[in-house]
Structures are given as C-alpha cells and as structure tokens.
Amino acid sequence: MSYCADKIESTVPLCCGACVLNWLACRCKNPKTAVMSCSATIASLLQLSLSTATVSHGNSSQRTDFGFMGISRNPSHCHLLTLKPKRSRLVRCQSTSTEEPKTRNLLDNASNLLTNFLSGGSLGSMPVAEGAVSDLFGRPLFFALFDWFLEHGSVYKLAFGPKSFVVVSDPVVARHILRENAFSYDKGVLADILEPIMGKGLIPADLDTWKQRRRVIAPGFHALYLEAMVKVFTDCTERSMLKYEKLLAEEYSSGGTTIELDLEAEFSSFALDVIGLGVFNYDFGSVRKESPVIKAVYGTLFEAEHRSTFYFPYWKIPLARWIVPRQRKFQTDLKIINDCLDGLIRNAKETRQEMDVERLQQRDYSNLKDASLLRFLVDMRGADVDDRQLRDDLMTMLIAGHETTAAVLTWAVFLLAQNPSKVKKAQAEVDAVLGQGRPTFELLKKLDYIRLIVVETLRLYPQPPLLIRRALKADVLPGGYKGDKDGYPIPAGTDIFVSVGGSMLISLFSSLSH
C-alpha cells in the first residue's frame, strides 16, 4: 500500500500493515514514483487531538500485544506486490494469525488453580471468565477479550491467577467510569507499570499532574508549529519512498516482480522518525537502520508487557535489577533512552532564547533551524524548566506516541483495501486539493474526506483499544446491555479494563435491537 495502486486487492479480512493514507496523499501520475505521503494522515490526526505519532515493532515472528497498557498491536502483515515496473501496483493483505482452537496446557491448569484460590471470588451476579497463560500469547489480548465479551456479555470479571479485572464493553458503563464518576477512579495498573519508564509523564500521571503538564505542553501545538511539521512529515515520507524504490529496483534487476514488506513495521519506523525530528529535533534514522535508542525503546515496552502479565512483582525485590538478566537489560535500555533525552534537553537549554508564549507562537518556524516541540518548551520555561519532568514528558511522547498512529494507519489500510470506490474518491480529493505541489498545513485542512476516513477508522478501531482504571472507593457499576438491571457492586481497589472497541459494538447491537 505504500505505492500508488490502480488496483487494491483484499484477499483476506485482516488488519494489514500501516500504510494507506500516506499513499493517498500524492498524485499517482508516474508509476515509478512512490505515491505515499503521511503528511495528510498525520496532519489529520493532529487536527483530531494533541497526541503525537507512535510506532509498532512489526516483527511478525515476535508479534505481541500491549493490551494491558492500552496500546494496540496489529496481528498481520500487509504485502506490497508490484507486478512489473510499468504496470499498476496492487496491494494484498495477508493474515499472519491463526484461528485454530487453543488447547490448555499444564501452565494453564496451574493458572486456573491460582485463579480459584487467589482471585477474590465473585462480584455479586457479575459473570466470571477464567483466563489462562496461553491467552496472553499467540494473538493480541483484545481478541481474547472480545471472545469473552461474546460469551459473558458487556460486563464481566476476568480472573487470571492472582490478578482479576472487571472488563467493561458497554458505553453506558464506560461513561459512568470515565465521565460521571471520573474522580472515583485512577489509572491503577497502567500507572504501576509505566511509572518506572515514564515517571510522571502524561500517561501514568495522576489527575492534578496531568492537568498541569497538559497546560504546559498544549501551547506548543500551535498553527505555525503544525505548518512547520508538515515539512517534516513530507521529508520523512520521501525518505521512505526512496527506500521502497531502491528495493523495487533491486528486485527488478534480479528478475523479480514482487517485494514483501511488513508495512506495519515500515510505518512504525516512519512515525519514529517524525517524532524524533518534530519533538526532539533528533534524527533516529529508523527508516534506514535500527537505532540503538529505538531498540532500547522496544526493550522497555517488552518489559512493561512482561510486568503487566506476570504473577509476582519480583522486580520490586531488592537487588533484582542487578541479579535478574532481563531486569539488568531493562535498566540498560532505560539508561540508553534517558542519556539520549538528557543530552537533547541539555543542548536545548544551552542554546535557549527565553520568550513568552505569545512571542514563541509568532516565530517564523518555516525558517527556524530547530522548530521542535522541545525547543518551544525550553524557550518558554527558560531556566525554570524541570529537567526530570520534561524528560518524563518526552519519554511519554516517544514511547506512547508512535504506537497509536501506526495502529490507526494499519486499520485504515485494511478498511480501504476492501473499498476500492472509497480509495478512488479519496484519491480524487487529494488530486484536486494538493495537485502537483508539496502539501502545506492549510491545504491538508481542506482534505475533508481524508479526515473522515481517519475519523471512521478511529470509530471502528479505537486507539488505544483499552483504557485502564482502578476504583478508589466502592461503587456500583450499571448493568449495561442485557446485564443485571440492579448493577454490579465493586469494592475499592478493583482494576477495570474499559474496552473502547467493545463499547462501540454494544452501541451498534443496541441500535439494531431497537
């Protein structure tokens, strides 16, 4: 999908690799030119929220899921097929997951035994689903949650060894937790897992810290900054295009006609480069090679996943960080990332030009050598900037920023691959609005249909697919769709998964039933 295609072929229903809207954002007049521009996609996402881009690992042999952290991982490949140099490109989605029924093993049985003894019993009339170790491997967790949703309904208790969670897949119950009683819940498990990595960054932060940090960061996403970022998006896109054209040329020279790419990984690399340049003014060069910093980022993510699913928090034992090999590696990975961010912050502070917010927002960012968000924040706060808090914020943007964008692009590719007529309509809008010139922020704002594609993708496949909360006091959850009309009482300390995608499905089922 990274290349211009006069034809899109969907061979299997799956989430294909992340690359569709990029491909929509350029004209496809020259078949030898990769027509991929993530500018439209990224700009559209920036119009929707203040979140930055994020990225996924993309190694199909090590496919994993960060569901416990609310970060999505997509279980498939998207293959780029080019028939001949002067013929149209087509894209085929190919599943890398399996639908074979799982069998329980000895470890699963031990898990269930622990569940029966340690999970705290039932919660009134709430249905109970028993998880197993095998549910955490081989496919993303949210697929298992969806299976349990079909079996147990929109509110159920998931018991897994010594851990238990209430899983909510109902918009009424979600609104009760996230909006109507928001102050009665905190981020619980999510904060516990991510605090060693992100400190007091935006994701694990408590409400007061989150409000304070958001007030500091939000002014950086002003119009002139976004205009400057369009150039970054376009430059990074062209870097990816050159890589793919080189791969194609090598394939043609050896007599081949097809190249296979894990496009989720390709979009992840693209998004990391965008974050590096746009947020830090640092070029990770992920599209061309694996950066040691990026390798360390994935190391911390895998450790966070491990901690979220392990029975006993052995990493809290004194000396564990030096004795246990994976904990030593985790500390090494954190040091690599922190040293990089500390160096960038130090350099920004040494060259700062302290100004107030209004003057900073009127800068000529088009001619500014360093138009990064880090530069804005350091110049705005000057000597008062807290290095540790700033590093936590930057770490959050780096780690949690790229995953969601890559996931949205992946699902968008999947949807568009099944709807060629929508692709033609989107392409026509891009041709009419952008023409042959390079995109600008003002032009991208006119891509209404592209924006709607992104919005619809987010509606159907929300990112992140899971939100995590912990009850600060006893509460009674609404029964939800076809649940107990008297609701479900929960004690303080109950950990909750809010399945955003499941809530969307319940809304659909409820509408159809009426």
The low-confidence parts are: 1-88
CATH topology category name of the domain at 106-203 and 467-513: Uridine Diphospho-n-acetylenolpyruvylglucosamine Reductase, domain 2
Average the pLDDT over all residues and give the rounded result: 72
Order of helices and strands: EHHEEHEHEEHEHHHHHHHHHHHHHEEEEH
**Could you tell me the number of beta strands?**
11
User: Strand count, sense and closure of the main sheet?
Assistant: 6 strands, mixed
CATH class of the domain at 106-203 and 467-513: Alpha Beta
| Rounded radius of gyration (Å) | 23 Å
What proportion strand? Answer: 5-15%
Give the proportion of residues in helices: 40-55%
CATH architecture classification name of the domain at 106-203 and 467-513: 2-Layer Sandwich
Q: Assign the structural class, choosing from mainly alpha, mainly beta, alpha/beta, alpha+beta, or little secondary structure.
A: alpha/beta
Ends apart, CA distance between termini: 39 Å
How does the overall form come out from the CA principal axes? globular
Count of helix runs: 19
- Report strand order across the widest sheet: 4-5-6-11-8-7
Family: Belongs to the cytochrome P450 family.
InterPro entries: Cyt_P450 (IPR001128), Cyt_P450_E_grp-I (IPR002401), Cyt_P450_sf (IPR036396), Cytochrome_P450_Monoox (IPR050196)
GO molecular function: heme binding; iron ion binding; monooxygenase activity; oxidoreductase activity, acting on paired donors, with incorporation or reduction of molecular oxygen
Task: Describe what this molecule looks like in 3D.
The chain has a domain at 106-203 and 467-513: Uridine Diphospho-n-acetylenolpyruvylglucosamine Reductase, domain 2 (2-Layer Sandwich), CATH 3.30.43. The chain has helices spanning 20-24, 38-48, 106-118, 141-152, 171-180, 188-198, 207-217, 223-253, 263-280, 292-309, 320-323, 325-350, 357-361, 373-381, 387-417, 420-434, 441-444, 448-460, 500-513, and strands spanning 5-9, 76-82, 89-95, 128-130, 155-160, 163-168, 185-186, 466-471, 475-477, 488-490, 495-499. The radius of gyration is 23 Å and the shape is globular. It starts with a strand and ends with a helix. The strands form 3 sheets. Strands 4-5-6-11-8-7 form a 6-stranded mixed sheet, with helices on both faces. Strands 1-3-2 form a 3-stranded mixed sheet, covered by helices on one side. A two-stranded antiparallel ribbon has the order 9-10. It is an alpha/beta fold and 514 residues long. Helix 8 runs antiparallel to helix 9 (263-280) and helix 12 packs across helix 14 (373-381).
